[in-house]
Each structure stands twice: as structure tokens, then as C-alpha cells.
Design a protein that fits this description.
This protein is of the alpha/beta class. The protein has helices spanning 25-31, 59-66, 77-90, 101-112, 127-136, 153-158, 182-192, 204-207, 242-255, 261-271, 274-294, 312-318, 334-342, 376-382, 398-409; strands at residues 5-6, 11-12, 94-98, 118-123, 143-148, 164-170, 195-199, 217-221, 235-239, 298-302, 326-331, 349-350, 360-362, 388-392. A hairpin with a 4-residue loop joins strand 1 (5-6) and strand 2.
Length: 416
Amino acid sequence: MSKYWNPAKSQLEDIPGMDVSKLSIDTLTVATRFENPGTEPLVNPIYHSSTYIMKHVDDYLRILKESGYIYGRLGNPNSDAVECAINAIEGGAGTLVFTSGMAAISSVLIGFLQAGDHVICQNPCYSATFDCLDKILKKYGVETTWVPAGCALREYEQTIKPNTKLLYGESPCNPNMTVLDLEAFGKLGATRGILTLVDSTFASPFCQPAIRYGIDISMHSCTKYLGGHSDLTAGCLTFKDVQNWKEMKRYQSSLGVQLSPHDGSLLLRGIKTLHVRMPRHSSNALKVAEFLERHPKVQYVLYPGLKSHPQHDIAVRQMVRGFSGMIAVEIKGGVEGGKAFVENLHLAQLAVSLGGVETLVQHPATMTHGPMIMSDDERRKAGITEGLVRISIGLEDPGDLIKDFDGALEHVKKGN
């Protein structure tokens, strides 16, 4: 039986004769399982039941106290299983899984903030995060100060107010791949008594275990690398402190954003190959990024594994098992150049999302960060340029991908 830690049940399981704390992440991604009573299946079954039978009225409060199962919205065995697996990888005090990445983000913002509170967040960030802070929470009296993504930590520090309750970061950043110094970020929050939250989706917990750098809350859209196959939507929050986990668990139940058993099962399956997929994503991305950086129709490439990346030294220090598969590339010719590139690919597919086995591309200025979310002025302030293309490199042969990108770049007009 492998190690898992579920703070609700206060259980710690070990492999007999082994020090689980010394197992590699490769082993933890495969071997972490949730224990079932009696005969144990190798693969967790899917528990479709929406409710659970009790023999006595008094069982209700007893089961709630023991964190057993009463009703699907309050928790289910499949969610518990995948929470244990993610928590083992992250090294946290507890993990919760949600119906999507934005369900995780909006829940933690609603749960830990109130009217009169102040947030400091980098710009750019994921478009829906921007919308949630700039449009939705603003209506309820939560103030947000925006600092440039990739800025020195002093810009966060200089904007702290007496009512600052949350420092929010992304690393690498969506969509322009800036890297945040997680250790310094965590220390700043701890020193000033302010919660720190980092969206580490672009890195995955395999490449970048954020909790281990002192971050209070590590967030991932599990739809991406953790799921890995573009067939589910899910999100997760991992907490450094168990008290914050307990508080968020209560809010999660009331908000009704618990992950479904079916998606929990798919997510757990995806996690079992995370340690195999991520090195290939990383090696493929580096080869493609090096090719694009040399191409005459490319203005610049931002990939943490390139020495030309402004925060390459930080990435080397904290992205301990590879630089992931996300690339930002500025195509010459602005909007028309970017469109010509993405619309003339054949192997890579034009689609939003990322982190799957297939290579995907999208044009942020007209798609994810387009006019339905951000104005032209807001995009300029965020540094989202007109020719910027976001690439999620998959598991195809890198030579085939390079040929596909080379062919698409032929459709970008010369002289731009």
C-alpha cells in the first residue's frame, strides 16, 4: 500500500518496509492509491452514487465528523483518491479537486477574501482570472492592484497595503511565459503575513512543486498536464497548512464545485503517466523553441529552457525536472502574421487549452485574451502583442512538428 495523506481522515499509509518520504516522484505518480476496505481493486472503481445509505439518524453527524460519504456534493471516493495522489506529488498538507481550474480559483478568491480586502496580481494572467478579479470581485468591494508579470518582487512589496490579503502569481505566466521567483514570493508573503497563491498550471507539479518553495496555495487547472489527454475539465488547490485546507473544504461543499466521480477517475488515470509525459513535453518544446528562435519570420521566442529567456536562471533553479511544453512566440506581421501561422498548420491544431498529448496553438489577442475579455488598451498594458502565438507542444515527433511549423511560416508575408 502506498503513501497518501488525507487530512480529513488523518490517515497516513505506507508501503511496508519502505520509507515513503524517500520515494521518487516517478513512483508516487503511479503507486499512490486510495484504500478501500476488504478486497482492494488495482484501479479504483467509479462511485456514481449521488447519495449514501445510513442505518441511523445519528450516523449523519458521525459520518460528517469522520469525513465519510453522505452526499456527492460533499465528497466522493474518486475525488479523495485523486486528491491524495496530487498531494503526494505536491508535498502539501492537503489537496482539494474542483470541477475546473476556474472553479478552484474563484472558490479560493470567494472563500478567503471579503469586501474591503486588497489583492496584488500580476498582469497578464489567465484571462478568466483577470475577469474574475477585475470585473466580478470588484463589484463586491475587493480591490486589485496589477503589477507587471515578470517584475522584480519589490514591485509586489511596494504595492502592499494594510488591507492586502493575497499575493497572486502565475509561473510560467499565461500567455507570455514570464517566470516568478517562487522562493522569494513565498518569503515575502510569510514575512508580511499575507497569503500567497501561485497558478502553476503551465509547469505542472512534476516540473515545479510550488508548495516546496513556501507558497501557501498551489493551483493547477488539472484539465491540462495533470489530466494530459484533453478529455476532462478539473482544477485543484494544494495547501501548505491544514487549517486553510479545512476552511476551503467547507467552502467547496457550500459552493457545490466538487469534482465528479467520472472526471476524478479520468484524472487519476492521467496522473499515473505524468512522470513519463512531462520529460517528453519538455524535450520536444526545447527543440521546437530553438528552431523557432532561428527563423527569420519570428520576432522572438519565450521559453524558460532557452538561455535567452529573461528569467532563465530562476527557471533553472525552480523548474527542477524540465521546463514543460509551453512556448510563446511573436510572429512578424502582427495580427495577420499570427493568423497566417496558426491557420496554416496541419499537424498542430488550432484550439484553446493546453497540456495534452497533441500539439495545440492559439492566438491570444483574438482568442483567449481577445475583446470579449480585455480591451486593446488592457492588452497593451499586459504586454499581449498582436503577433503573439501560444503553443502547447505535445508528444509527437519533434522533427515532424518542426516541419509543420516551418511550412506554416511560409504563409507569413515577407518583409514584416
